Here is the input.
Amino acid sequence: MKVLFIGDVVGRAGRECVAALLPGLRASHDFELVVANGENAAGGFGLTRPTAEELLSAGVDVITLGNHTWAQREIIPYLDSEAPVIRPLNYPPGTPGKGMIVVRGRQGTEIAILSVMGRTFMEPIDSPFRGADAALASVEGKVRIVDVHAEATSEKAALAHYLDGRASAVIGTHTHVPTADARQLPGGTLFLTDVGMVGPRDSVIGADVDSMVQRFVRQIPVRPPKSREVRGPVTFNSVILEIEPSSGRGVSIRRLDLEHEARPGWRRGE
Ligand SMILES: [Fe+2]
Ligand SMILES: [Fe+2]
Here is the structure.
């Protein structure tokens, strides 16, 4: 079975790009499941119910989040609903939402999707290693896909090796920069340090260039314009995982990177 994992979807242009490309990809690849990281889907920061529903109706089955989970506070009741949206599981006990979900794919395969967040150069949080241990033990025997949302490449690789043989795939998100290291680990787990993003190519990790340059040149935070038309292509970074459904063991992993010309009216932000 094949699973498509899509990198952080950034703002309206990212959502529009997913809606433009995903139906065709689903038709030609027969994906059992499509996962997308949606932590930047609402105007670049966080997720709202309408933006989540946009992604779900475009053909995404499960949305994962990350450090921007709480940027749009209206999402909190939605996270507690049955919606197929998960936040990192290593927040303290009692945090709204869920960090793992078990869904059925298009052919009925039971698939567990987990989200964990790294701790290096990020906000303090519980251990992603111990958190993943407990969650994976509860879904032994199923296909298990882990989104590791982290800044440090070393932390992601260490987690992937730690989970080798226990997870079907460990896929990195958060940096918005695609890495070229898709591979199968010795124990069978499929691993990629970072899948990348779906967002404006001519940007600084999806964000407005002028604001980001000023922020680094002057060391003064600059609020980006609320909305600006996107010119040039929108990058679509994703990865195709092939997994043996009965054992949950990884078979192959390859990147799928596309560019889509922004249509008039597509905007960053929003
Ligand atoms: Fe992100
Ligand atoms: Fe992030």
Notes: The domain at 2-200+235-261 is CATH 3.60.21.10 (Purple Acid Phosphatase; chain A, domain 2). The chain has a mean pLDDT of 95.
